[in-house]
Amino acid sequence: MVGGRGSESAHVVIGVDTHKDEHVAVAIDQLGARLSEYRVATTTKGYADLERWSCSLGEVRAFGVEGTGAYGAGLARFLTSRGRTVVKVNRPDRSTRRRKGKSDPTDAEMAARAVLANVADSTPKSGVGEVEMIRMLRNTRISALKARTQALNQMQALIVTAPAELQETLLGLTKVKLMSRCARLRPGELTTPTAVAKHTLKSLARRCRQLTIEIDSLRNELSLLTSRAAPALINSFGVGPDSAAALLVTAGSNPERLNSEAAFAALCGVSPIPASSGKTNRHRLNRGGDRRANAALHRIVIVRLCFDDRTKTYMTRRTGEGMTKTEVIRCLKRYVAREVFRILREMRPDVALQTAARHL
Predict the structure, then answer these.
(1) Is 207 contained in some domain?
(2) pLDDT along the chain (360 residues), means of 10
(3) How would you class 214 by CB atoms within 10 Å of its CB: exposed for 0-12, middle for 13-18, buried for 19 or more?
(4) Using an 8 Å Cβ cutoff, are 108 and 16 in contact?
(5) Cβ atoms within 10 Å of 160's Cβ, excluding its own
(6) Do 237 and 222 fall within a single domain?
(7) Looking at CB atoms within 10 Å, which of 89, 99, 223, 312 has the fewest?
(8) Final residue of a domain: which of 69, 95, 116?
(9) Which helix (H) or strand (E) holds 201?
(10) Is residue 122 part of a domain?
(11) Predicted model pTM
């Protein structure tokens, strides 16, 4: 530990710069004076030592933690389980780093000052319960989908340059038929370009088949988990397991951290952004937020435009008022975000915590 001791009655704010093997914490008092610095290992014992050190300096107001979705996730969960207030802090902006420099203690101090000034005030995701399970399964499925797409693209690129006698038997096939045909190829000894091409295509086709089995299995597990975690969301018109999983992951296991449906809309990137200046009064498209949640809302709207009479009627009315189809879809995504937020806020956080405890 480096630095002096604080008063027992002092209110303390702790900033933590997180890393894979070690966290660096800096404490400041309610007036912004730097009190002390502490380094701990990223273990349960290290987290407990950090909490004891913080309490020795005074009454802890909050912990500002960087990377609550990555290296700081374990510390954030530990402190939250102990009843501590944890605030999610983004890394300092470039202008601050140019003035203050870059070091772990400096970043930790900037995190503490961001909390003290209420610049950082968002509650991190709790990272527990069925939503956390959904997040892990969903990320695994996404990586499997990407790997299968890469293998299929590699197969099609190989066919383009394959010997003519092999190419003619494979051109024009659908993806399913192509995988089936290539999986049955018999390359023989690898002594010719044709034999090597057959061997490579067969290997890629088998990889695609295995990935398809994995993808289907993960989808079934996701469907079960999403149905159990948010049955009302799954039962909403146009919401499938993939879209429900994306929206649940964006909201987190503790959707009560979102103060309003406008905050959730901003988190999904469907809230209009003011872009007014002088006599010009307008809004622009929000290109921020979680783009996967944004894509999920878009899929829901498209499904409703195809099969839901109320949504069709709304589209007809608004286009008759002079709006373009794209503008109407943006409005519909905002409405769906409001509907989803109301469903998510009805999820009981204590149920998620009990579910997490059963799986420990």
Answers:
(1) yes
(2) 50 94 94 93 95 93 91 92 91 69 87 90 81 93 96 94 91 91 92 93 96 96 93 93 93 85 91 81 81 95 96 95 91 94 74 41
(3) middle
(4) yes
(5) 8
(6) no
(7) 99
(8) 116
(9) helix 193-229
(10) no
(11) 0.78
